[in-house]
Design brief:
0% strand, mainly alpha
């Protein structure tokens, strides 16, 4: 009977995990969080606690509930046993939450750690976000330095590389060198292999405003 009860409990947890995932895919983030929290409270295994907190973190990010992102990220990092990708995702989401909550030093520390390896997409995104934070703070020289270092490393993730070039164009424009800024944008528009509309919209909006 005990073995059967254990099997039943495990199946019940799996059912909650499945239900939560379906709710997330349907965009019902608040309901998904409630179900993930139920899964966490009933979890008899570390794996299910990880599944629950990853779900809470992702859904909370979608809802811009940054304190909940931080809380679930802290739980995940304390649980351990995360895959390398899960740990990178958790640290990136923590950094994004820190950014929105105005905890700049903490965000930069996470971005800098992740950006040490721009071969993976999270590292590339972190490198861009770190530079964007510096730009938003008015630290254009530091932003330019970070962007050039990122570009020189040769990440394979073209989207974030394109975002970096657009931000670099912003830096040149802010420094009063609109010609150089437009050169970067025109070159990017001609050579970018992707199809993401936001990249081309960002390029065209700037070119229209800056070209004389």
């Amino acid at each position: 009977n005990k073995a059967l009860e254990a099997t039943d409990a495990s199946f019940a947890e799996d059912a909650l995990a499945i239900k939560s995932e379906i709710l997330m895919k349907q965009g019902h983030n608040a309901e998904a969080i409630d179900t993930y929290r139920l899964l966490e409270s009933k979890s008899s295994s570390r794996d299910n606690k990880i599944i629950a907190n990853l779900g809470i973190m992702r859904a909370s990010k979608e809802m811009s509930h940054w304190d909940d992102v931080l809380s679930s990220a802290a739980t995940l990092l304390s649980l351990g046993s995360l895959t390398a990708n899960e740990e990178r995702e958790t640290r990136l989401n923590r950094a994004i939450a820190y950014t929105h909550l105005g905890k700049k030093a903490e965000a930069k520390a996470d971005y800098a750690t992740l950006a040490k390896d721009v071969r993976n997409e999270v590292g590339a995104q972190a490198a861009y976000l770190h530079a964007k934070m510096l730009y938003d703070e008015g630290k254009t020289a530091d932003c330019e330095k970070h962007l050039n270092a990122f570009i020189d490393e040769g990440t394979p993730h073209q989207y974030w590389l394109a975002k970096a070039f657009i931000l670099l164009a912003d830096v040149y424009h802010k420094k009063g060198d609109s010609f150089e800024a437009c050169e970067y944008l025109r070159s990017l528009k001609s050579n970018y292999p992707g199809t993401e509309s936001d990249i081309f919209n960002d390029i065209d909006t700037r070119l229209k405003a800056w070209q004389k």
